[in-house]
Specification:
With 188 residues, the chain is of the alpha+beta class. It has a single domain, classed as Yope Regulator, Chain: A, CATH 3.30.1460.70. Helix content is 34%, strand content 28%. The strands form 2 sheets. The protein has a 6-stranded antiparallel sheet with strand order 1-2-3-4-6-5. The protein has a two-stranded antiparallel sheet with strand order 7-8. A hairpin with a 4-residue loop joins strand 3 and strand 4. Helix 2 runs antiparallel to helix 3. The longest helix has 40 residues. It is elongated and about 50 Å long. It starts with a helix and ends with a strand.
């Protein structure tokens, strides 16, 4: 049985939330205040003629490609997915957008208000109170070691003894695991 935009709007009305309906794209947009997400927008979108529902938080931290090391961020997101129910992380390789999503198939049953509220009430704290503090810690750690890492990365313009180009022979390899930073020295 199909779910409708009108039904979703009614559920949000019952919560006394403000929202905007985008009927052309079969979605409802709302937002909440949050501690760790600057603009916590929630998109509630219907697909497949109302037989599939998706809640997602778009552009969680702007352009993820600006943050280094990107692999560490995605590693942390995968670890979070492993440890949470419902929540999935999505990345658009074309524009770098990273979003959190909850997806619900509704093939043979209508969406109940209890299911709707469960998904919505899980999405917000999982993103704002669990995931984003950990991701921001990874980003902060990457920023704090970037100047140090640049010192140890080879420089193509500095001559080495013996006439070869490059910088120093060692660099810092940074791995992030469980929100702690491990710095190890590696040899080329």
């Amino acid at each position: 049985m199909a779910t409708t935009i009108r039904q979703i709007a009614k559920f949000l009305d019952n919560r006394r939330w403000k929202y905007m309906v985008d009927e052309d794209n079969f979605r409802v947009l709302t937002s909440v205040e949050a501690a760790y997400v600057e603009q916590f927008v929630i998109v509630i979108q219907l697909h497949e003629d109302g037989r599939f529902l998706q809640f997602y938080v778009p552009r969680l931290f702007g352009d993820a490609q600006e943050h280094q090391p990107q692999e560490s961020i995605f590693h942390k997101l995968l670890a979070l997915s492993w440890n949470t129910k419902l929540l999935q992380w999505e990345s658009d390789l074309m524009n770098g957008e990273v979003r959190a999503a909850i997806k619900c198939p509704l093939e043979d049953a209508p969406l109940t208000e209890k299911q709707f509220n469960y998904c919505l009430s899980r999405l917000i704290p999982m993103v704002d109170q669990v995931a984003m503090p950990r991701i921001k810690a990874v980003m902060a750690a990457a920023e704090s070691i970037r100047p140090l890492a640049q010192i140890f990365h080879p420089s193509p313009t500095l001559p080495l003894p013996g006439g070869t180009k490059g910088g120093c022979k060692k660099f810092i390899d940074v791995e992030f695991f469980n929100s702690s930073t491990l710095i190890t020295e590696s040899v080329f």
